[in-house]
User: What shape does this take?
Amino acid sequence: MSATPTDIINKKDIETKTEELESRFSADRKQWTSRISEIVADLRVVDRLPEVQVKMLSYRQILVEKIPELKSVLYKKNTSYENYYKMLFRHYSLNYDIKLSGGEKEKLIRVDIAPVKRQINILESHLDFYGECMRTLDNMAFAIKNRITLHTNDTM
Assistant: This one.
């Protein structure tokens, strides 16, 4: 007996994992937003600039380590997507009861594989978020330098 799309892709399992992923990433986004907001608030106080600079560099390093980890997960998920696509194409080409055109196969495959594509989109979105956090922290390095320069000029 040949595999069905349900045998190939366990949508319920994927949906559960997707919800866990969304929940984890939501908490992570809140944490990073809070960290960056804290640094921005501390930039106003000149006496805290050394501490702010250390935090900024520390957070940047954390992101430098997290981004490749997330990219690795994304690459694996893309590979799974391609494998699922191949298996579903084979199923609809050889084992489906009705002869389908290429466009019909494509539509059925896209519907069956949508939960995996959703995970990929979530991972890409979070990777973009990390990239924006990194750019914000990089800009803060210049803000710290400018703040120190302003303070030095004011005290002279």
User: Anything to note?
Assistant: Residues 16-155 form one domain. The chain has one domain: 16-155.
